[in-house]
């Protein structure tokens, strides 16, 4: 049994905490940290977490834990990871690693100096059964040599009001949305990114433009092995969360996630033949989050390298920074 | 060039007339017969048909035509076909051949006594490119030996008001709807029907029950070669016309028509991911009707036996009669 | 924490045991019973079950358990349930309850005499998120008044070799496959079955005919409230397990499970645009089995009536018996 | 009746000629021109074209025709159009108008000096019923304000051997494939193109790289009204021709053509649940080509401006030239 703690009990933090409390039979959630009294009450009453902290360092010092889940806000990820490593804890962190490249590299350095500690970043799609299946099929040569990836992260519109509030902290749409697509591009094409060219706009919510961000963006990516990718992100879909990825190879292609149907029910009524779509990334990737959390615990138990490392996170953040710059300066950016 | 006449210029008759006037370059529509002045005016003004008749026999006697399209109401099909044959004309008739078995057999006898005349009945689905493709695939052994057919004829609800008016003349839902499915069952399973067991009800429109008919029915069919079928009909779908057929074999199955999408457009909006469906059988089978009419003309030109003969129509009507009896007497009927 | 035992550790029993051992945090699997040494070794070594029994009654007497999961072979369900009730244990039993109506009624009587004990039968589809969603939508009136259910249970062909061995014990295809569809018909149409008319054959594997059974069957069902259903079963599909249900109402219809895709990956290659399908009912309903097992434990904890009761199981078995008789005697059977 | 002539009787030319000979009842194909004896024999024997020419100017001078269909090779389009206009003929030309901007502008100038003559360029997708339906839905506001178009032209791999031979004449993949997508972008977003950024490679057939072209490309487009587009082209799909377009708006999105299924048949076999796809653009757009040809004849009869004008073709070619330059020089090109 691995004793774990968690920092951050917001929307996503609560879900992780529930998994750790209930669904991973080799882990025990013994400590939780939040600056919100209400969130700590939730951890205590709903999940029975015995040790609660308002101060993160105190948790690291006092709680009998081997591993930490960092589900705090994006701007705190780096500091929380570093502190955890310095206290000798294994770390799982939600993506993105950080908004600045300096912060990323600092995390990378410290992580490298603690090779005995597992340090995993939550690129959840790699753990989704459909993406896993696609990766296996590509590996088996089903589509020949892959040379093009198209991928998108699209949220249902109702998230926008919420998002505009924390767009400053999150680093913007490329960091918050496309970081996943960037990771998938690297994963499927097995190459590093050479250059990016991004465009976009605040087509529905001018508030994002005012914050220097966008509500819809598209990016073309060149990779070092001469393959290519196109990634998109949107905050404004009406039908639901719509993550979609296409991997094109010389002998065929794979497409993951169209439509992003909620379940196996089709409705035939005056609107035609239709399927409801998943409303949120959580609804889409609920299973994958659990598989990922279990994988992290298993990596600790068996002392093996996780699927997604700090190095992956650094590369993804570098590309997200380049995308943001390309979008702002309206030119191609070489990495 | 084959000179043709048409009797019946209702909804469907108008469409046939347009095809004959414009789209079959080896046929010329030179005569039209209707009891409706308005319909004759349409034929003259819209289609330029030179010779118009209120009396059917007069058209047969006077018009310089080799072939007749019988698109009159169901209760007149038999009489119109017989009279045309007796005047030495090739005949294409809309389905069903007749409501009574006596009428069917009389047509069959007279047709047999005129082996020089083409006599084709409009089982339009056999001419639909998708059904054609399925037939070829079954013939090539793609699904092994077929042993089960599921087929349905489903109309959009808005037809019901119209249908209740002529349910008396049409012979009811088994004759009017399932006659197509019965024909497909015989075509794909290559056997004759041994028994039927039908149930149904007027679930939405009690008017159909009052007329001794139903708005939704289901029938199980046993065939002489021990294969089986399930056919259904509905007058009450909200999403559109929805013809669907499934052919199950020992090595696979084919499914035709799901969903009955109107075109290749998908709509993603607050109702989910959806496709509009075809509204009517015409919208679904528009192409097939033209292919069928062209085939009839080609059969005359080349003097070959058509795909769907009077014998097929007699068999289908026998089965429709048995279905109706089974539905009314609530028991299995052997043919 | 509820202490539970399990009897039967075959294919499905193992899966239940894993759930009980790992995934239900309010249950503890403390005892397992099997006549197979190998299965008991599995329970001990893989799942850490502390108390193992070759004799079922001994487990009931000696083990400190509140509840039993009966996952033994169909012909033993009734005896195992009865004995468990008599020892004061809550019981969850896999479907079907029994093959004979006498056995069913005996279970029902004894269950009624122990109103303090939860007795749930595993109609797993009611717990599947898609079926749950459909039930809610029907309840909300989305499709008006439902009057027709079409439902099928279709297995991938590779199961057949295995199934022919135990077709004697299982009661045949109506008990083993259609029992689920029968339950869904009652659930969605909210009425009891009035009569059935079943046909079928051994179209691919004559062995089933020799055993008095079939590899493909179709049944028409009339319900007491005048609604209707068509259910089918097949042991011979090439593409995968293919459970499908359609609920037709006066204002629309719902369709669940088409195609029975394995995941969200589509393959585009020389075979066209395609999706792999789930291979087994387990792959299709894995989630639902866990939800169902959790629900049983929750019913014990909160002392509430389960979704699927002995009464449901008795009704379903009565219908399955009638279907079998109809198939064998080639006539409609009234219940 | 409009008398028409045709120049070019290659693959596509033959199809146009058949339509003109048989399927447009207000046009008569009275003259055909080709440098190939074999093609002229086809026109005479198969289609009964009375007047045949090896010399284009001779046809223009001698034949009693009001209109010309220019279906010659891309490098001759401009010269053939100009000569036809100078002889006072209405002109329909296959796309693209020309490969060089000078040739385009020359055609434009001469066309403008003959305002009495209809001059239409074959952007066939605008005439496809699905694209038509999408345009209407966008116009009705179904998806709010459109701000993003994704569009692709993808050919089945078997075309490649053929294409490598005439890649020199055609202007390359942006002119030959993406010209359609460029036109759709302008049509749906109702704005002119401001800049393009294109990448690509010869991922499967190095021959295309040797010819200075690519077998797969992707382009990002900025429009003057601040909306955006992503277009792609591929010569190497294994599953079939796969034209696809997505129009994203503030209140929803439309997707046209996924999957590019051949017909309504689904196959369920050991490969899963699958649909065969259309093999060629002709199979996909056969209907649209006829609708387009009929529209041109109707424009002449009624003296109205066609849907797709020389101005559209000039704009599209300018963008295709910019894409080609961007691809070759690896930088964003402003128009």
Helix residue percentage of chain A: 40-55%
Oligomer category: homotetramer
- Element order of chain A: H for helix, E for strand: EHEHEHEHEHEHEHHEHEEEEEEHHE
Number of strands of chain A: 15
Morphology of chain A:
globular
Q: Give the percentage of residues in beta strands of chain A.
A: 25-35%
Distance between the terminal alpha carbons of chain A, to the nearest Å?
Answer: 43 Å
DSSP summary: helix tally of chain A: 11
How does the major sheet of chain A shape up?
7 strands, mixed
What spatial order of strands do you see in the largest sheet of chain A? 12-11-7-10-9-8-15
Q: Which structural class should the secondary elements of chain A be placed in?
A: alpha/beta
Mean pLDDT of chain A, to the nearest integer, reads 96
Unreliable segments of 5+ consecutive residues of chain A: none
Radius of gyration of chain A: 20 Å
Largest interface: B-C, 33 and 34 residues
